[in-house]
User: Fold these one by one.
Assistant:
Number 1:
Amino acid sequence: MVAHRSMVRTFFDDGMYLMALVTPLLTIPQLLTIWTQHQTGGVSQLTWGAYAVMSGVWLIYGLLQRQKPLILSQACLFVVDMAIVLGIFIFRP
């Protein structure tokens, strides 16, 4: 029973690295729409700014807890979220 729990935990621990990379990739279409097509209609700068702030807080938490998957995902999300906020600021009419 203990070996099974260890195997499940190892599976999830390893899987979190994949999730840490996939999650930020899900925001790339929004980023591309803003930066390549300059379309910002219906995109909230406040919402994406809040996402960036929360990613920053989670990043700090991950650093304090030394949780590599959390650090990886939140660092990537912070960069992408801030790029979206910047794009909205630059391209909003």
Number 2:
Amino acid sequence: MKRSVSLIFAAVVFAMLAGCSQKPQTLTQAGAPPSQAPWMGANPAFTEKDWKVGDKASWQREIDRRSQNQNEYVRMR
């Protein structure tokens, strides 16, 4: 009886400790290669109509517009 209780307790402790581990997180970029500027390449299915590939100014305008759309103060005015 004591052995089965000990095994159950050990299994519960092991399961709890397994939940505390963290998977390694790596930054991957699916669009442009890391040696290329972000405005130089993109999947055409995910581009905005006002953004032209290779144009840094239009890329920056789109990034600014997207960030303003996430601003609750600006959205609710």
Number 3:
Amino acid sequence: MCRSHLKKIRLISKFGLALLVNIGFVLPPDFAPDSPPTMKAELVEKASEIVTDPLVLVNLVSQRVRQLNSGRSPLIPTRPSMGAADIALIEIIEGKIRLVPQVAL
């Protein structure tokens, strides 16, 4: 991996997750090579078409994962094999959650 990609990973990992933009999936900061990815690459790729800024996408997914883990109900049908991050990404893809621009009052 080239140095520029490592720099991108370190910058994004300050927000809790490292987004590997060049290959399209998110890994936890303590990723071990033999552990599976925490989110499916195709979900991250589709969600990144909707939320184009990787930092905003990571923050949006992180916030929704916290909500799901604290007891909020998913807005989509789920399977037991789906992780909270997968659920959050699918909700973004299906338009169930989205960014709302703040309006200055």
